[in-house]
Amino acid sequence: MRPNWELKNCCHHEQVVFLITISVCTVVILALWRTVLLKPFKLVTVFLHEASHAIACKLTCGHVEGIQVHVDEGGSTQTRGGIYWFILPAGWHTTNMLFILASTNLLTARIAAGCLLVALVIVLFVAKNWTLRGLCIGFIVFLGVVWLLQETTKFCPFFKPAGVMNSLFSVYDFFDNSPDIYDDLISRRIHTGDAEKFAEVSLLQWGLISLLFLSGAMYPGLVILS
């Protein structure tokens, strides 16, 4: 069957549910952003951010020297070699698309859950601090519960929120006057964030890229569901 790239006869029930779910996730995440309820999910988003840097480094023949995630929602990935302009933007923009696309059906959700589980186990043994180790253990258990729920209900309850969270983490920083966007690109008070480094090798605005990637993930998601 040919992909329905023109999205003719959009939108049927599954596509409407897909759009509504992402919209609801966006509103709920922004509403609860400063609450303790989102703390572990924000930390795992930082983990995914740093893991994406590490994967991009490996894909470009670099060497990953260490990964850290901190309680204050900061993180760092020490790399050597690789392609600089490919490693830096990988942090925010790859996992959000992959997670949103993974949420479109049960098979892709299973594959994504399996890949995330393997990543958590690997990072558990190479983590440089106990915050990251505890995060890995907690989310291995959490992912097991999600997998069980997914298999019994045939519904993918995790990857849409995870994809939206990863996208909003950088965009929210822009409006919240927080480091990665506002401080790096506008106020210039912080000079070591990913956004400033990426700005040095690209003229594209960081926040705009995040929104485009989120929108770009929704379009192929609708095509898959069609």
TrEMBL record:
Top-level lineage group: Eukaryota
Keyword annotations: Membrane, Transmembrane, Transmembrane helix
Keyword Transmembrane helix part of the UniProt annotation: yes
Keyword Transmembrane tagged: yes
Transmembrane parts of this sequence: 15-33, 107-127, 134-150, 203-225
Family annotation (PANTHER family): OS02G0221600 PROTEIN, PEPTIDASE M50B-LIKE-DOMAIN-CONTAINING PROTEIN
Protein name: Peptidase M50B-like protein
Organism: Eucalyptus globulus (Tasmanian blue gum)
